[in-house]
Amino acid sequence: MRRALALGVVLALGLAGPAHAARIVTLVTTSRFVDPATQQFNNPPPGAPARPPALRVNVFLPDGYDRGGRFPVLYLLHGHGDSYDSWANPQRGDVEDIASGFPGLIVMPEAAQGWYANWWNGGKRADPAWERYHLDELIPLLEKQFRVRP
């Protein structure tokens, strides 16, 4: 009887809170350096639905992220022919299974067919400016939105 009463008190006080399982969240971002309407995006991974062009990023949040603290970050960049969600696809990267127990955030950004670099464009080094998007916009956005270590 005492155990049942103690368990009831713990549950009532919320001390046995919900599980803090690892999960992936997807963000859609904007950029002044890359216009997604003008970019050629790769096809989604096998089994994923078609989608309109956008600057998406998957963020893997580790077990216990909701409990607080700051976390290290690992950036996984997709290769030629892939997209931001290739790492999460069980047939391509299966990051949720592979990263089970990893104690940090894993960021998987889109780069379309931009090679993560500012394009040369005859010496103008202008559109698209994927390097500027990732370094000047995406990383600061993630550092503001998530509890990451500097």
CATH superfamily: Alpha/Beta hydrolase fold, catalytic domain
CATH topology: Rossmann fold
Main sheet: strands, sense, barrel: 4 strands, mixed
The DSSP helix count reads 3
In percent, how much strand structure appears in the residues? Answer: 5-15%
Helix content: 10-25%
Describe the structure using short key phrases:
150 residues; alpha+beta; Rossmann fold; 4-stranded mixed beta sheet
How would you sum up this structure, described in words?
- A 4-stranded mixed beta sheet has the order 1-2-4-3, with no helix packed on it.
- The chain has helices spanning 2-13, 95-98, 130-145, and strands spanning 23-29, 55-61, 73-75, 105-109.
- It has one domain (19-145): Alpha/Beta hydrolase fold, catalytic domain (Rossmann fold).
- The protein is globular and about 50 Å long.
- The chain is built from 3 helices and 4 strands, in the order αβββαβα.
- The chain is an alpha+beta fold.
- The longest helix is centred in the C-terminal third of the chain and has 16 residues, at 130-145.
